[in-house]
Design brief:
Blueprint: E1 2-7, H1 11-26, E2 30-31, E3 40-46, H2 50-66, E4 73-79, H3 82-88, E5 94-95, H4 104-109, E6 113-114, E7 130-131, H5 153-157, E8 168-172, E9 174-175, H6 186-190, E10 194-195, H7 198-210, E11 215-219, H8 237-250, E12 256-260, H9 269-277, E13 284-286, H10 294-299, H11 306-319, E14 324-331, H12 338-351, E15 355-360, H13 378-401, E16 407-415, E17 421-426, E18 431-435, E19 445-454, E20 457-463
Parallel strand pairs: 1-2, 1-3, 3-4, 4-5, 8-11, 11-12, 13-14, 14-15, 18-20
Antiparallel strand pairs: 6-7, 9-10, 16-17, 16-19, 17-18, 19-20
């Protein structure tokens, strides 16, 4: 039997998908990119933006039409708002939260599929799988009870992920959010902050390193609030990074550890100091600013000021001068004036980011601001988006041009659109390409001499040793 799985949204959803894949494989399913031949059709959804939910609805309409000529089961999980969940219950066979993933085999059995589940230790399946799809009389998860997406996450995290890549991996360290930014729906889709056991995080990382993974990203909605929900029971984020760094020093393997996303409210000087001390902790920091104006930050409920943010950036530049800095910023949030936007532009000019993910504000259903007027015209949002993009390009080009003539380490991750070149990124996540047809280099860290630069990428020559 085959399954088709469609992940939508952020890196956390991509990571969750890898654990869903493990459960499906242990049930005897094999993946397919052809929806028509799949017995099981699933979506890892993202309710954070309406565009993501629109994709879910268009897909399920198509799948339900297919039922006229095939037997299949449909499911949806991931980041789902309560209102979307109620609608999905009428459209999908199964609707469940990620912390209920271990129950998926039992859910499917209720549909008449006899599936011998392979335990976590991956012992072989010896029984025959039979198919006779019949919907149960009482669909699962049909009650309008209160769902806690963060409850019992340890049951989910213990599932070993089926990694899509052989050299890049995600490790979830925390789930949920307590910040309640007014533009964001994540606290309602992911629940409150829950930290994973540090010993399990470290064990998963060590296994990946021993398997020669080169890029490992620690994931969470607020990674640097790690451990705050278990004070006295668990270490904090700085100590988690320190233990990863000590392990990196103890092994003869080169790898880079990243994390996303941190919140400025919880970014301590200690975290920055620790990153500076260990070679395996990548010198790249993603620090969302969202706005460069204090009044706007207050409306967004960010609970930090530009001076607070400025202190963090100054500390990074002082303690880790080689670090690249990425950010997220929103234009056109409710009530944004020309003066408030100009302060965001000035912040972009001051902090000189290497990369910025600039979003034109759109209403997030379920977020506090969804009840406010979306009063900045689309044409104004688009104009402001281009102004900030131009600001980004100006400063990223200066940085990239400064790399010309230097030798950088590069993790090779694929083939360029021009097949005569391979692509990759530096430790600071600057995109690079170099001429080579040696596909064996993919997944390895190599040295490249930079020969030219554009605002968002560089090019160079492979140094052979």
């Amino acid at each position: 039997m085959k399954y088709f799985l469609l992940p939508l949204g952020c890196q956390m959803n991509q990571s969750d998908t890898e654990r869903v894949r493990t459960v499906l494989h242990n049930m005897g399913f094999t993946p397919t990119e052809n929806e028509e031949e799949a017995t099981l059709l699933g979506i890892i959804a993202c309710s954070v933006r309406q565009k993501g939910i629109d994709k879910v609805y268009s897909r399920i309409v198509k799948w339900n039409e297919q039922r006229e000529h095939k037997n299949c089961i449909t499911f949806v999980s991931g980041c789902i708002l309560p209102a979307d969940r109620e609608r999905f219950l009428k459209l999908f066979d199964l609707v469940f939260t990620m912390n209920d993933l271990p129950e998926l085999p039992d859910m499917i059995r209720q549909y008449g599929i006899n599936i011998p589940t392979r335990p976590i230790d991956n012992t072989p399946i010896s029984e025959q799988i039979t198919v006779n799809i019949q919907k149960p009389l009482v669909p699962l998860f049909s009650k309008k009870d209160k769902i806690n997406p963060s409850a019992n996450m340890d049951r989910f995290w213990v599932i070993e992920p089926d990694h899509i890549s052989d050299f890049e991996a995600f490790i979830p360290i925390q789930n949920g959010c307590n910040k309640f930014c007014t533009y964001c729906a994540v606290p309602y889709t992911r629940g409150r902050e829950v930290s994973r056991k540090s010993e399990d995080i470290l064990e998963e990382l060590k296994e990946l390193v021993q398997k020669d993974y080169k890029s490992i990203t620690l994931l969470g909605q607020n990674v640097n609030s790690y451990g705050l929900d278990k004070k006295g029971e668990e270490i904090n984020f700085a100590e988690l990074l320190r233990r990863i760094g000590e392990y990196g020093n103890s092994v003869d393997k080169e790898f880079w550890v990243y994390f996303t996303s941190p919140h400025p409210r919880d970014m301590s000087d200690e975290v920055i100091e620790v990153i500076s001390q260990y070679k395996c902790l990548a010198k790249q920091i993603h620090l969302p600013i969202q706005s460069g104006d204090n009044a706007m930050l207050d409306r967004m409920n960010r609970k930090h000021t530009i001076d607070d943010y400025r202190h963090i950036i100054h500390t990074i530049r002082t303690v880790i001068p080689e670090a690249t800095i990425f950010t997220d910023i929103i234009v056109g949030f409710t009530g944004e004036t020309e003066e408030e936007f100009e302060n965001s532009r000035k912040a972009m000019e001051e902090f000189k980011y290497n990369m910025a993910y600039i979003a034109q504000y759109s209403v997030r259903p379920g977020a506090v601001a969804s009840t406010w007027a979306d009063d900045v015209p689309k044409i104004t949002k688009k104009k402001r988006y281009h102004i900030l993009t131009d600001e980004l390009m100006k400063h990223s080009l200066v940085y990239n041009q400064g790399l010309v003539g230097k030798t950088v380490k590069v993790l090779v991750n694929g083939i360029d659109r021009n097949s005569a070149y391979l692509t990759g990124h530096t430790e600071g996540k600057i995109v690079i390409r170099f001429k080579s047809n040696d596909r064996r280099l993919i997944g390895k860290i190599v040295k490249v001499e930079v020969t030219s630069a554009t605002p968002l990428s560089i090019e160079g020559n492979l140094i052979t040793e």
